[in-house]
């Protein structure tokens, strides 16, 4: 008999895979707040990380060496610093405060998703070190606390109007490094351990299934309204986490 916790985490694993396939306009931002609501912030964030890293590793293959190394060189140094600052914050912040912070980030990032959907970029911007470094720093910090920081990087790269495969390859490689570097941090602050890896291992096939499902949904289903429903859900859950 599957428990409610197992069902919820299985759904989250599917959503992670679907999001990596690009369906639903950033559906991945739903998983962190939803699991925080069910399991508490540290358990939710810690358990998600190995599955996110697995998904990033799988996604590297079809886009191998198609990424923009200029952007990677700009983003990764800031990302490393952001992760270090996030690790420091995780040691200071209480469980309750972290829950409310995840709620605030969920609200902010759901609103950013709506803004991204309606705002049109007129002219492509050029990649530069300091904007990339600062966006990488913000992404690393926010992602360490809640796994939603990738939206900042995506918006920055979208403004460069690069070819779609290059965009996906660049974001995938950057997220891979961010999630890989977060592993020792989470281990150090006791958010993951060897038991975590054993607990989430059975959900790995669901992540892979989610990637395949996301590819099919992209081909046959319009994700516009689906994405809007997801972002409204994130907004509602975020407000609930702030209020309770």
Strand content: under 5%
Oligomer category: single chain
Q: What is the number of beta strands?
A: 0
Largest beta sheet, briefly? none
Large-scale geometry: globular
What's the Cα radius of gyration? 17 Å
Total of DSSP H or I helical runs spanning 4+ residues: 11
Number of domains: 1
Structural class: mainly alpha
Order of helices and strands: HHHHHHHHHHH
Low-confidence stretches: none
Q: Mean pLDDT score, rounded?
A: 81
Distance between the termini: 31 Å
Helix content: over 70%
Please provide a brief summary of the model:
Helix content is 78%, strand content 0%.
Description of the molecule:
The chain is an all-alpha fold and 244 residues long. Helices cover 78% and strands 0% of the residues. Helix 1 packs parallel to helix 3 (41-60) and helix 4 (69-92) packs parallel to helix 8 (164-188).
List keywords for this structure.
78% helix, globular, 11 helices, 244 residues, mainly alpha
Helices and strands in order:
Blueprint lengths: L3 H17 L10 H9 L1 H20 L8 H24 L2 H24 L10 H18 L3 H9 L5 H25 L5 H7 L3 H17 L3 H20 L1
Helix pairs in contact: 1-2, 1-3, 1-10, 2-3, 2-5, 2-11, 3-8, 3-9, 3-10, 4-6, 4-8, 5-11, 6-7
């Amino acid at each position: 008999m599957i428990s409610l916790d197992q069902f919820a985490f299985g759904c989250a694993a599917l959503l992670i895979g679907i999001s990596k396939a690009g369906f639903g306009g950033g559906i991945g931002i739903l998983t962190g707040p939803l699991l925080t609501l069910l399991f508490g912030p540290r358990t939710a964030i810690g358990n998600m990380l190995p599955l996110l890293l697995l998904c990033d590793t799988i996604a590297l293959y079809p886009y191998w060496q198609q990424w923009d190394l200029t952007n990677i060189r700009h983003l990764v140094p800031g990302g490393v610093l952001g992760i270090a600052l996030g690790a420091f914050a995780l040691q200071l912040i209480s469980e309750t405060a972290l829950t409310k912070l995840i709620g605030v980030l969920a609200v902010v990032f759901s609103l950013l998703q709506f803004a991204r959907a309606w705002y049109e970029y007129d002219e492509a911007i050029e990649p530069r070190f300091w904007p990339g470094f600062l966006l990488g720093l913000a992404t690393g910090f926010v992602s360490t606390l809640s796994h939603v920081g990738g939206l900042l990087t995506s918006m920055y790269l979208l403004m460069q109007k690069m070819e779609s495969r290059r965009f996906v390859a660049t974001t995938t490689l950057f997220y891979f490094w961010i999630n890989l570097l977060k592993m020792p941090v989470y281990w150090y602050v006791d958010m993951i351990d060897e038991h975590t890896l054993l607990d989430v291992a059975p959900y790995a096939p669901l992540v892979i299934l989610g990637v395949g499902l996301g590819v099919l949904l992209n081909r046959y289903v319009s994700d516009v309204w689906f994405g809007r429903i997801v972002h409204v859900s994130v907004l509602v859950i975020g407000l609930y986490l702030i209020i309770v």
